[in-house]
Design a protein that fits this description.
heterodimer, A: 92 residues, mainly beta, 3-stranded mixed sheet, globular, B: 470 residues, FAD/NAD(P)-binding domain, 7-stranded mixed sheet, 5-stranded parallel sheet
Amino acid sequence: MADAAPRVPVTLDGRRVLVRSGTSVAAALLEQGHWNFRVNRVSGQGRGPYCGMGVCLECEVTVNERTHVRACLERVCEGMRIGTGTAEEEGT
Amino acid sequence: MTTKTGPPTVHTAQAAVVGAGPAGLAAALELARGGLDVLLLDEQPEPGGQYYRRPGPEVLRTAGDHRPEGANLISRVRESGVRLLTGHTVWGVDDDRRTLLAVDPDGTPVQVRADWIVAATGAYERSVPFPGWQLPGVVTPGLAQHMSAEGVRLGRRTVVAGSGPFLLPVACALLERGVRVVAVAEAGRPYAPGVAALGALRFPSRLVELASYFARLTRHGVRVHQDTVVAEAHGGDHVESATLVRFSDPGRVVARHEVDVLCVGYGFRPQSDLPQLFGCSMERDPVTGDTVPRLTPVGRSSVPHVYVVGEAAGVAGAPTAVARGRAAALDILAGCGRVPDHRTRRAAAVRMASLTRFTRLTSALYPSPADLVTALTRELPGHTLVCRCECVTADTLREAASAPGGSDVPAIKGDTRAGMGLCQARECGPALEALRTGGAGTGTVPARVPLRPLPVTAVLGFSDSSREDS
């Protein structure tokens, strides 16, 4: 079923992976079993997507050098470079 | 964020609708049909809001479309001449109270000036903190539903917990994707035949829907615990298990389940910060504890050209959201001399009244959210991260609440930084309000500009243009 979907290559933390076309970036990462999206600035602990609708900002990742992109609101596209595991900065 | 700099893009329209969910789509469609020039803004890449949220066409082909009526409404809006600005985040309101400040997907500032404003900003899930809720793998039921609709199998084993009718379809959606749902935990006792449920018999279709979810859960051997809440999520880097306790007797453990995904949510809260920025008169809903705008039956706020529709006006479900969107649009059309057919307006009013009765009945089945939040917050262990962004514990907040000024939510925020992180108290807000001591002071978390974290250039671009204008 889901396997019949067309797949596109993206780069996740420097590693090339194939993801289903047309999903959100959050869905693509979770489907890879990748749950640590960013690091909390205060505790230094990993955080993953929580609300899925752009409110909590726990799913912020870097997309093609654009920082603070909410993975739940962004769609994957071919060749996209996705970076996870960075701490949010003060004052953004 | 990498952004373009430069002057803002300026749009003008007779009516601007913020939020392209069921209410915003319905309002925009009716306004365009009435002959107005309409702009519809939404922060998502596609219209639909949360309820009609749609993944890409490739996903719909393989994973199926669980709400085809949304596609129908969206295509009618596209054909109606409404100008649709997706990927646009509205973050503020100019002093003239007619200009929306937004940012486009590239980070370029955008201004939208309109004679009429319709806020259809929807709702988000009500979270109540508990120990371990910050662990990856702990999510809201809404996230579980969206990911399931995108064809993702979110994990192997899960518990769906919280309160409200939404938990049942979410559990079913997870099952459909092959996730083992170990249990559903509902804080109240809605699923026993009782006096409160009798009124719902006048709305048999909704009962049938609820019963069909139940049947599916039973068929899959899912246990539905009532009077049960999640007391704690355990795990190191990821959630590994969850402890369930009696809501009415928190010392009593109901079960401890191993899970790799835990879904917890206590219904929905109106996203009412945009009406607050417009200066609309607000009030606290005593049942939900939520801050909602004071509105006429057709959604007009205390600021006469600002209407609030859909879930932002008070959570009542998608059919009501659509009815509210239409009713507000008809009132605006009447206000600009384009008097809609009397029968159309009357039919809209009758539909609203019927839906309002149904909402009251459904809410009566579940515990009052205000009571839930108060009771759950009281039980929180001291080490619980109440504010997950700034990592502020329940102990710290209780200390701040017992100090002078502890009855004032902004003072507690200032003392502890709770609610001042990225989500701006959208997740911990209800708990912060419940933790404050009674007495003088602001009891609610006020809306702050910007409504979302912004690229610096978006704000700079705006202030540059203000100088040019003046």
